[in-house]
Design brief:
two-stranded antiparallel ribbon, alpha+beta
Length: 263
């Protein structure tokens, strides 16, 4: 596969090269080789001279029509996800995106899943400078408190105390799994994953998150999805809209918690 790689320095394109790659080639290796040649040729300052190759950050965009990538902007990669070895999906946060490598095979799979919307016959990239520190809220207990009220609508009309305890244990296990396996730590990140993919099926949710059919159904219904034939779509019924409204309300509560936490 032929891909055009354009390297930008301080917002200006300084090199353009078309390279034929096989499906296992590393995208990051191309970035590193181009970056080092540009520094040597144009005498650019090497901000990362004392770092190992795996510690040099790169922004990149796929088929970037605006050509607006800048070395001085923390303009992260247009890809928010990566695949684990078992095929489940992994959420990239903050600076993680700047150090992640992809093969052509993985890009193709991510496009098939639906989290990559464009082709990738051209990749624009740069190495950013002046990176600051990031932070992330990690509160699984709050996440659990947010999910439980949603259960009353459409998933189960009524649950006994015994069922509630069992469900809490199940959701606790789910949240731990989402955190460890998928790097998803809060309700907003979970909802954004579902928003980023257009065509959901129960099978796709099961495989990407490595969860049971019951939990996949719960998460889709909790966000207001309805099952139509073999796929899930945002529902228009009174019940599905009510579930979505509750999810949005709980998400606002979570955002308020984050604001108060960091005051």
């Amino acid at each position: 596969m032929e891909i055009e790689f354009n390297y930008y320095h301080e917002g200006q394109k300084v090199s353009s090269e078309k390279i034929i790659l096989n499906h296992t080639n590393s995208i990051r290796v191309i970035f590193l080789e181009t970056y080092k040649r540009a520094i040597k040729k144009h005498k650019f300052k090497n901000w990362y001279n004392n770092r190992d190759d795996n510690e040099i950050p790169f922004n990149f965009k796929l088929n970037n029509l605006n050509h607006d990538i800048s070395s001085y902007e923390q303009d992260f990669s247009s890809i928010k996800y990566k695949l684990n070895m078992d095929g489940t999906i992994y959420l990239l946060k903050g600076y993680d995106k700047l150090y992640t490598d992809y093969s052509i095979t993985e890009l193709i799979k991510l496009k098939e899943i639906g989290v990559i919307k464009s082709d990738f016959n051209r990749i624009d990239f740069s190495s950013p400078v002046g990176l600051g520190a990031g932070f992330w809220v990690d509160d699984l207990k709050l996440f659990l408190d947010i999910l439980l009220p949603i259960i009353k609508f459409g998933y189960k009309a009524y649950i006994s105390q015994k069922e509630r305890i069992e469900l809490e244990n199940t959701l606790n296990q789910l949240l731990e799994k989402l955190k460890i396996n998928n790097n998803i730590e809060n309700i907003i990140e979970l909802r954004e994953l579902f928003d980023d993919i257009d065509n959901w099926t129960t099978k796709k949710a099961k495989e990407l998150l490595n969860i049971s059919e019951e939990l996949a159904t719960f998460l889709l219904m909790a966000q207001g999805y309805e099952l139509i034939e073999n796929g899930w779509v945002h529902g228009t019924s009174k019940e599905s809209r009510k579930r979505e409204k509750i999810w949005n309300k709980q998400e606002r509560k979570y955002e308020k918690f984050r604001e108060n936490f960091y005051k």
